[in-house]
Amino acid sequence: MTGTMLPIVFDPPMRGKPPRHWFDLTHDERVDATVRLGLPKFRADQISRHVFDRLEDDATRFTDIPAAIRGELGEQLFPELLERVTQRATDDGRTVKTLWKLFDGSLLESVLMRYTHRTTLCISSQAGCGMACPFCATGQGGLKRNLSQAEIVAQVLKADQQLAAGAVPGTTGRLNNIVFMGMGEPLANYRQVLGSIRTFLEPGPNGFGMSARGITVSTVGLVPRIQQLTEEGLPLTLAVSLHAPDDELRDEIVPINNRYKVDEVVDAAWEYAKATKRRVSIEYAMMRDINDQVERAELLAQVLKRRGDWGWVHVNLIPLNPTPGSRWTASRKADEKAFIETLERRGVPVTLRDTRGQDIDGACGQLAAKNTPEPQPAA
Questions:
Q1: 185 and 57 in one domain?
Q2: Which intervals of the chain form a coiled coil (predicted)?
Q3: Is position 321 annotated in a ligand binding site?
Q4: Is 331 annotated as a binding residue?
Q5: What average pLDDT does range 254-275 have in this prediction?
Q6: Is 379 a member of any domain?
């Protein structure tokens, strides 16, 4: 196969505009919106406390807001953004995947995962994805549109509401970690993703008050956006979906590599690590007889070693969660073991991801693909 040159559009316009939501607004914009409803400025903080402190987004329950205005407040600033289509659980309820429908019928997925000492939410940044990686169900479905800032933030609110209600065994707390590893390429929706991250980080009552170290942004390697993220000065974790250490193979399995080559991507990641003092995660989906050879493990070690000592990077090997009917499938256990041992001999920090959700269509985009109607032939 040959790589396909991919036309990349940064921050493409949305098809139809999602309804405006409290989550789309800055603090000053929230105050202005409150005043336009005929309320005094201080009510803005009261409303935010309901949302971020009490996890309430039903304006009819804002009992300290005048009853006469709650209906209009809900209609104008708290429209329902996510409609649950289906939800599947596994791991004794500790892994929950939800398919959501948006105002225009677009679908997105989020996955809530409870571990021993943390709770993580994997969220989507786009409806679909335009990166066209052939082994990914989302990439094969194409890009529908960017998500709004509020549609991204709403996924986190829904998860925190589930946790607070005790719907996930072992916790009634809040999320510890957010990973932008669901549907879409986060850095291709840069403005909305960064806006949502700032909402996650903002202390109460105007945000969720999370730690930047608990947020991971994944990218297939949009070099200008990695550089822009570096300049933000936020100590987020950067995860680079490399999947191959050589341009010949990566051109084929990660089409954006036709624009930004392996050395450019790894250089940008290295600069990010230097600037933020945060270790970069190199994501590497193990694909049988495609990228899992010992020779490629040796080459991966060489590529990473050229940038400095091993403290800046960690390799996260991912057993591929195959999509039905796909020729792309998971590596043999023996090949996984040999790949890991090769990296370890070279002193490269490496782990094999604990896979979850194979029995609930856990791979990115699988659940959405199953619930997308087949195109009908023209009459």
A1: no
A2: none
A3: yes
A4: no
A5: 97
A6: no
